[in-house]
Amino acid sequence: MNAARASLLALLLCWATAALALVAVPPLSGRVVDQTGTLAAGDVASLTQQLGDLEARKGSQIAVLIVPTTDGEAIEQFTLRVAEAWKIGRKKIDDGALLVIAKNDRRLRIEVGYGLEGALTDATTKRIIDEDITPKFKSGDFAGGVSAGVNRMIAVANGEKLPEPEPPHWQSPGLSNYVDPFNPFILVFVFIVGGVLRAVLGRFIGAAATGGIAGVFGWFIAGSFAAAILIGFIAFVVSFLVQNMGSMGPSVGRRGRDSGWVGGSGGSWSGGSSSSDSGFRGGGGSFGGGGASGSW
Predict the structure, then answer these.
(1) What is the CA angle 122-125-127, rounded to 5?
(2) Do 94 and 70 have their domain in common?
(3) 3-class SS at 275?
(4) Total domain count for the chain?
(5) What sign for the dihedral angle of Cα 157, 163, 166, 167?
(6) Residues 74, 194: one domain?
(7) Which residues are listed as membrane-spanning (predicted)?
(8) Which pTM was predicted?
(9) Residue 67 phi/psi, 5° resolution?
(10) Where are the alpha helices (DSSP H) in 132-259?
């Protein structure tokens, strides 16, 4: 009994030691992650642009990772760990692919998600490695090899029939076709209604109410929530700024009666910090071990 427990403990210790010895999966900081400094900034920018264009056009995601070594771990196992952590490709479509290079080990692999396996087959990815990538790697042209491999992966992925990519949630296609927010009738409405509401409710609340009413009208006219938000925001800003401009005029006439300027409080408009999350992230794609490996 004691021998069995000792054996089980030894097995668990070996497993834990092996797990701790694995090279950590790098964080997904972009479409191209180079931990070796092999690629110049211009190369990374060019690859990033190409891969971004592919995602915008097809929805598919391709990422590149260059590490110094997998430290004895098989390139297949390491790449699959990266794929499972990064989740490249769209969820339930699984149209992602990874090009992983262990430079010091002289090993590389292309890992393909389920959704692209019809185009980026095992045979196709093997040919990309053997015909496009490794010949350039052997001559020391790593940037050229990565670029050639990525270009061919993109060309093959373009031939796969996939669902159209969804537009960004904040973007409403053809918004300008719905309604012109600078239509003179809208501006006149803002000036008249905004003036009345500001006089009754005060500057900020009146401007906000004006924006809300304009947004409701925008919703009925355009039938678009995005258009309603845009019109309401513009109406709020215009109404608010008009009040500020109006408050400066009367203060000039009152200067002689008071010890100083009697204008509105010098508050400033702040739209808040608008953060455009342009950071690349995986879409939840899954991988099943498809792809090919190679060396040079």
Answers:
(1) 110
(2) yes
(3) coil
(4) 2
(5) positive
(6) no
(7) 182-201, 213-242
(8) 0.58
(9) -120, 160
(10) 134-138, 142-158, 175-178, 184-201, 203-222, 225-253
